[in-house]
Amino acid sequence: MISLTILILILAPILLIQIIWDSKESQYLIIASLLYILLVPQKYFPMIILMPAVFTLAPKFAREMGFLILGLFLIDPQVREGLTPINILTLSAFSLVLALRISPLPSGKFARALYTGILGILSGLLGIFIPPFPLLSIAYIFVFPLTSLSYTYAFVTVLTSIVLHEFGLYSFPDPALPSTSILTAIAIPLILIVYSIYIEKKGILRKRQTLTLLMFSLFMAPFIPYATQAFVLLLAATSVRLVMSLPHPEETL
Questions:
Q1: Strand, coil or helix: 207
Q2: How far apart are CA 4 and CA 19, in angstroms?
Q3: 79 Cβ partners below 8 Å, 6+ apart?
Q4: Are 15 and 52 in contact (CB under 8 A)?
Q5: Can you say whether the dihedral through the CA atoms of 6, 8, 9, 15 is positive or negative?
Q6: What does the pLDDT look like over 243-252, one tens digit per residue?
Q7: Per-residue pLDDT tens for 102-112?
Q8: CA dist list (Å): 170 to 28, 121, 126, 219
Q9: Are the C-beta atoms of residues 124 and 157 closer than 8 Å to each other?
Q10: How far, in Å, CA of 236 to CA of 186, rounded?
Q11: What is the dihedral of CA 54, 234, 113, 134, to 10 degrees?
Q12: 122 vs 134: CA distance, rounded Å
């Protein structure tokens, strides 16, 4: 527990500073959240790393919408009750790797290749804690089918998973039906997703970062029991990003 505390204390300030740097509007929401955490620090302390990690899933021009993602994720009591320190760190890593995958690639061929390779390794390693996570590489190929880096990412992810499997650290899960209790956690995000797709229709195909999350959600659906909290968080992020992409005509008096 002490080592987890030290890890959180090291990573949390870095993430918090990054989010505030990206969006000045986020600082007020983050301060409000930190004050809430400080009310019961022994219970909510690990949340100081999950909070900024979730903010990274919001579009960069509207990082403050990460507060809404976090709210949709925590709306269900069962989700909140399952947030142990290990689960919180896992979900933080889940959020950060997702955010890095849908972020623009760095400039330069070598930098892009290195970035893709590291992400592939991280995606494979994260599969130890979230077994369906390697499916992100397949979703990415569906959305970006014409780039060689998409296939490189998938190859490195699968190769890492195979190596872990050989060492007995990973096995791909079998499809399973989720508990009906998850419906209360995903009802609002699902409504927002269906509404956004109905309004946008084919326009959603142009929003590739968000489309990647949507495809990943579809691929993860048969494996919800193995990653329930991650799936709820993924749907929350997808729904908020889709709503953010809807046309917002200015109101006139």
A1: coil
A2: 22
A3: 73, 185, 228, 229, 232
A4: yes
A5: positive
A6: 988 766 554 3
A7: 998 898 899 99
A8: 41, 13, 10, 18
A9: yes
A10: 8
A11: 130
A12: 10
